[in-house]
Amino acid sequence: MEADFDALDPREVTRRLHALRNAFDRVLPADNAKDCREKYDPKAFEDLYRQTEDCIAILVKAAPFGHKDRAWIDAQTCADGLFSAFSADFIPRLNRAIEETLPVPEVTADRAMALDLSIRSHSPIAAKLFELLATRCRDLTGHGTPLKWRADLERRLSNLVRLYQGQINDILTSPDPPDLRGLSADLLRMDVLYWALQDLGIPTVADVLEKNEKVTARLIMDSASDAVDRFLQRPDNLNRFDLGIVLTAIDDLIAVMARVLEHHERDMEGPHDGFLESRGRESITRFVVAMGKLMVMMFRDLSDQAASDELVYETAEINLTKIERIHEFCQLADPMTNGRVHAAADRTIRERSKILFKDLQQAAQGQSAGDVVKVFKRLEQTLTRLALAPSANPTDQRA
């Protein structure tokens, strides 16, 4: 319901200021983790945001500040009290709500006691309310915005960024295999957090987070490369388990590689750190080489299974899908290798496919051809998807 500004009197302005102060006290969680977790309500924040906007509009129209009339002095006193409450209580509580509702990495959730762990459910309403108060403080209270409001928020978020990165680094440098899928999702959360920090006008913390994001992406890829290299050097059960973690996270690792490449391209557009640029290139090159070796191993395993009458279509289908994904890695890495990686991947797949086709033809003559023919057709599908020429069907009896 729109207010009738002409009918407003000082008592109405005072009443609305009192109501707004009570609303802030009711809606804002206390400045401690337990109360914030239990009390945060996005819908209540949205209502509070609209109530604040309405109050600002009324005060701008009524222009109560500077009047000598006693009734207007009461309204000014109420506005002074609201400003004092903001500085002493409400802004710290609001900053706590912002801190708790940012899209933090899940790997640190238990320690940070964060409320909102999902990117999709991330609500920027607490941050929007802070920006409204910071930019319209004079219209609402007659006072300028204190620098300490944003300084308090920057301090809190700086601490969060340090906490999250420290925890992620501990996980990535641990001797235990990391949850690559979870860390890949955390990388996306860090990206959302970066833009939230930019929107809040805290570029210094955002810049630190962006550098951390680059390091995290490279560490994730290095961790995956380490797992592949360990298995290729010593294919025991423990290293096979670590390799399985990498293989199940291939789709997520593609997103990580895309992020590394995006950062590389962004760095090349302006002043950039030559060391960080070379580290990004090194991580991608090493990872692609490891994936290439893994791809060759998969082809060899399929040939060995065909020769030993142990070929199972479901297993072969999984391996061929992984090979397609590795080819996608090589395509992504192409800009950093002047086209060499993609061409090498095409050449390797063609050569290994020819060998596998011949092995499948021989296997089809000596055993039940059911799975062999299905694998043959699936291999043709892989080559078609990758725009590489398919071969003949094994039942054609041609070598």
Describe the structure.
It is a single chain. With 399 residues, this protein is mainly alpha-helical. The longest helix has 34 residues. Among the domains are: 135 residues, no CATH class; 127 residues. The protein is elongated. Helices cover 77% and strands 0% of the residues.
Please render the helix and strand layout as text.
Elements lengths: L9 H18 L5 H7 L2 H21 L7 H32 L7 H4 L12 H17 L5 H26 L7 H20 L3 H31 L3 H12 L1 H20 L4 H34 L5 H21 L6 H27 L3 H16 L14
Helix pairs in contact: 1-3, 1-4, 3-6, 4-6, 4-7, 7-9, 8-9, 8-11, 9-10, 9-11, 9-12, 11-12, 11-13, 12-13, 12-14, 13-14, 13-15, 14-15
What is the mean predicted local confidence, pLDDT?
A: 79
**Taking Cα atoms only, what radius of gyration do you get, to the nearest Å?**
30 Å
Category from helices, strands and their pairing: mainly alpha
Largest sheet: none
What overall form do the CA principal axes indicate?
A: elongated
- State the total count of DSSP E strands: 0
Helix content estimate: over 70%
Unreliable parts: 1-7, 107-122
Write down the secondary-structure element order.
HHHHHHHHHHHHHHH
Strand portion = under 5%
Compute the separation of the termini in Å. Answer: 83 Å
Count of helical stretches: 15
